[in-house]
Amino acid sequence: MNLSPIQEDVLEIISEAGALLLTNFDQEHAITKKSDNTPVTDIDHLVSAYLSKNLREKYPSFGLIDEEQNSNPAERNKEFCWVIDPLDSTRDYIERKDGFGIIIGLLQESKPVLGVTYKPAKKEIASTLYGEGAFLYTDGERKRITVSPSSEINLILSRSRKSTALDKILGLMKPSSITYMGGATKIVEVAKGEATCYLCPPSSPLHLWDLCGTSLILQEAGGTITDWYGKPFNFQTMDFENRRGVVATNGIIHEQIMKVLRDL
Q: pTM of the predicted model, to two decimals?
């Protein structure tokens, strides 16, 4: 199947969903806590409903898994399945920081074939189709993105996900720089060449919807992504909550990072 028309539809839908986030950005929101103690707002649910409605109307035969819905894992058994995070980094949105965004991935026979992320406050869309490279859209311009060619460890980490194991790793790794951000689109920052490595320890799990679209963007930009044990992600069997950690790199330093993890 030619996926380019699907990509165009997703770019339009995600842009409209991003406009919803911006329209409501300065308002007060009803905030509750999920079972994992992460925040969720009325806007998470609003954007979730908008994305689901529009994607289902255009592609009624596709499965759909959404962070804010009680999704059935069996949706992945359909030939195509959307995997959606309607508001990545809800904390940033609540705190009125610009790191929040939307992530949409598409599985075909359980393998990522499309990934789109949108950071509305930065007017930045990253998009890819399997085998066609990764691209960044900013201010109407489209440019190809590739990972950094550096062999230095320029690390990007989550502001909120701390662990003793990670502290030990940083002591052994001695990174050249560390940047802290919110959200799973840190993986896209590696794809853009803004960092050479993103680490997320198993004790601070990312989810299926965090990884589906972003992992493909990184791989199409020339990077490598595995769990902390060096295994690629299997999106057919992965639990919604991935507890095997994430190592996302420019590929050049991936084995170096894995050696540090093995030596622990």
A: 0.96
